[in-house]
Design brief:
Layout lengths: L2 E5 L2 E4 L4 E8 L4 E10 L6 E7 L4 E3 L7 E6 L4 E6 L8 E10 L4 E5 L3 E6 L1
Parallel strand pairs: 2-11
Antiparallel strand pairs: 1-3, 3-8, 4-5, 4-9, 5-6, 7-8, 9-10, 9-11
Length: 119
């Protein structure tokens, strides 16, 4: 069974920084893409950033220049460094992975971590 476990959320003031972590565990053969999505109250879940196994990153326009996604391959762990946070970044942040197990490939999600940016 695969698990994605996020950590690092919390409360921060406008202009502050947070770093989210996501560790994938279980019987994993390979990870194709990992990413971060977020969902604010009353809004749809939206992409924040993705990072492929080929080191290609993709960022939402709203976070470009402020957020940076990175990873440690050996630990199946990714990070999201979030700087210059604004109240509009307040949301539950979900880790995502497109990965292969021994017998299938699928999408997996973490349980989410709350990020709250206070004015």
């Amino acid at each position: 069974q695969v698990q994605l476990v996020e950590s690092g959320g919390g409360l921060v003031q406008v202009g502050g920084s947070l770093r989210l972590s996501c560790a994938a565990s279980g019987t994993i053969l390979s990870i194709y893409t990992m990413g971060w999505y977020r969902q604010a109250p009353g809004k749809q879940r939206e992409l924040v950033a993705t990072l492929t196994s080929g080191d290609r990153t993709n960022y939402a326009d709203s976070v470009k220049g402020r957020f940076t996604m990175s990873r440690i391959n050996a630990k199946n762990t990714v990070y999201l460094q979030m700087n210059s946070l604004t109240p509009e970044d307040t949301a539950v942040y979900y880790c995502y992975a497109d990965l292969r197990r021994w017998y299938d490939r699928g999408d997996y999600w973490g349980q989410g971590t709350q990020v709250t940016v206070s004015p």
